[in-house]
């Protein structure tokens, strides 16, 4: 009758809990006394209720008597089956009074409520950090202990979180469960897909507080901010060189190790950076993707295009402090300064001759190798220098582009004009 009347005559003197059955009160009192009279003969675990021991024994026997009629899943506890059935019915009986969110499990609601109250009852005994969920505290503690309980059975990689292991396993299986509905791009990690979607939406949520520039990825913003702060957190332990990008440090370290991992499949040349290999490959393919919008000239390197554009502006920003001569490109000024210093940094290993420019050394080396790479398409004559080929071609066209300003005589080659001018100046021709 007590089930109809709701009567609960048995009350706990400690906490005031009341129940309809005396046996229930007896069991309840054990929560205060700590009494656990029912022990597991396999592992020694003890329980306050016999039913708790019965459920526990199934962890040893593997018995799962509660079966789902819909999908066939089986469980050791009836309560677990009740919770599971909600995945089929969609029932979410536990509702948040604050925001209306509903959940299948009561403990999930309890955890959710902490997003409203700000409660963080789980505290780290090492550093004092607090968390709303016990599972988050467990993961956090591993940052102190260094524990990595989740291990990859394929390669032995270990990590502190199971979710990280799940993502790692995709490097072995090749699984890419996150797919872009716009272009079909797929990836193994959800955050990569989120970032990718911004290439379609144009969204750039990460904004620089200094200059207002916006970026689609937070990592790119972090690197950008260093252009304002001048921070260079990556330092070479060998020579002390520091840089803002980790990738730059990796490339720099190869100057010490001599490693050149990026090799050309055509000629075997190797490079420290992949970008240098990409640029080098254009010497084989002839590709020149960087085009001048003014004259249409194309270049294999972007830096070459930037230097070229200055020739259209007429600007010559690089000035020699010795003679005042100015140049469009800094590299031209560097070479020019050698006419004042006499420096010849490029030396021939064969004969010891030295030159002011690398190009002059390359051309000189052909006197040793006999190489004549510049070939006339008309007669097949070959030359060590391109300028010599240009002069030679004029003999086929009959053109005489070099004119004497004194007598208006015309010459095919500039060298012939120089010799001719001496007939006007009276300079000793024998010394030529």
Describe the protein:
There is one protein chain. This protein is of the alpha+beta class and 432 residues long. The chain is built from 16 helices and 30 strands. The strands form 15 sheets. A two-stranded antiparallel ribbon has the order 1-2. It has a two-stranded antiparallel sheet with strand order 3-4. A hairpin with a 6-residue loop joins strand 19 and strand 20. The longest helix has 12 residues, at 22-33. The chain is elongated, with a radius of gyration of 41 Å. It starts with a helix and ends in a 7-residue tail after the last helix. 0% of the residues are buried.
Kindly summarize this structure in a few lines.
It is built from 16 helices and 30 strands. With 432 residues, the protein is an alpha+beta fold.
What are the salient characteristics of this protein?
two-stranded antiparallel sheet, 30 strands
What is the total tally of β strands?
A: 30
Using only C-alpha atoms, the radius of gyration works out to: 41 Å
Low-confidence stretches: none
Which structural category do the helix and sheet elements fall into? alpha+beta
Helical content band: 40-55%
Number of helices: 16
Spatially, the strands of the biggest sheet line up as: 1-2
Q: Provide the residue-averaged pLDDT.
A: 88
Largest sheet: 2 strands, antiparallel
Q: How large is the share of residues in beta strands?
A: 5-15%
Q: Compute the separation of the termini in Å.
A: 133 Å
Give the overall form. elongated
């Amino acid at each position: 009758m007590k089930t109809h009347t709701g009567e609960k005559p048995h009350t706990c003197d400690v906490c005031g809990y009341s129940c309809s059955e005396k046996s229930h009160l007896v069991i309840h009192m054990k929560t205060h006394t700590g009494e656990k009279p029912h022990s597991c003969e396999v592992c020694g675990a003890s329980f306050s209720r016999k039913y708790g021991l019965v459920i526990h024994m199934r962890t040893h026997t593997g018995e799962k008597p509660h079966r789902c009629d819909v999908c066939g899943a089986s469980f050791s506890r009836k309560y677990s089956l009740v919770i599971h059935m909600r995945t089929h019915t969609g029932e979410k009986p536990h509702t948040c009074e604050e925001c209306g969110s509903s959940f299948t499990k009561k403990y999930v609601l309890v955890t959710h409520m902490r997003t409203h109250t700000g409660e963080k009852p789980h505290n780290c005994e090492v550093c004092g950090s607090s968390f709303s969920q016990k599972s988050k505290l467990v993961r956090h503690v591993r940052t102190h202990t260094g524990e990595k309980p989740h291990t990859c059975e394929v390669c032995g990689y270990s990590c502190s979180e199971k979710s990280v292991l799940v993502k790692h396993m995709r490097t072995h299986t090749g699984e890419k469960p996150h797919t872009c509905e716009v272009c079909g791009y797929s990836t193994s990690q959800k955050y990569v897909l989120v970032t990718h979607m911004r290439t379609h939406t144009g969204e750039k949520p990460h904004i620089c507080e200094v200059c207002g520039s916006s970026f689609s990825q937070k990592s790119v913003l972090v690197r950008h901010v260093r252009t304002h702060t001048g921070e260079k957190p990556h330092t070479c332990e060998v020579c002390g060189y520091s840089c803002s990008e980790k990738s730059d440090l990796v490339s720099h370290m190869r100057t010490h190790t001599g490693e050149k991992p990026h090799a050309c499949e055509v000629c075997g040349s190797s490079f420290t950076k992949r970008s240098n290999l990409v640029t080098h490959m254009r010497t084989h393919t002839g590709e020149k993707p960087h085009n001048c919008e003014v004259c249409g000239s194309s270049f294999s390197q972007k830096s070459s295009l930037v230097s070229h554009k200055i020739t259209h502006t007429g600007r010559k920003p690089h000035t020699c402090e010795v003679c005042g001569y100015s140049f469009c490109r800094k590299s031209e000024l560097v070479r020019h300064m050698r006419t004042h210093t006499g420096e010849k940094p490029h030396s021939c290993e064969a004969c010891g001759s030295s030159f002011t420019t690398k190009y002059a050394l390359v051309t000189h080396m052909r006197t040793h190798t006999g190489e004549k790479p510049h070939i006339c398409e008309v007669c097949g004559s070959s030359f060590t220098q391109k300028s010599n080929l240009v002069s030679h071609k004029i003999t086929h066209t009959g053109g005489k582009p070099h004119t004497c300003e004194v007598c208006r005589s015309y010459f095919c080659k500039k060298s012939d004009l120089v010799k001719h001018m001496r007939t006007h100046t009276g300079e000793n021709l024998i010394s030529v």
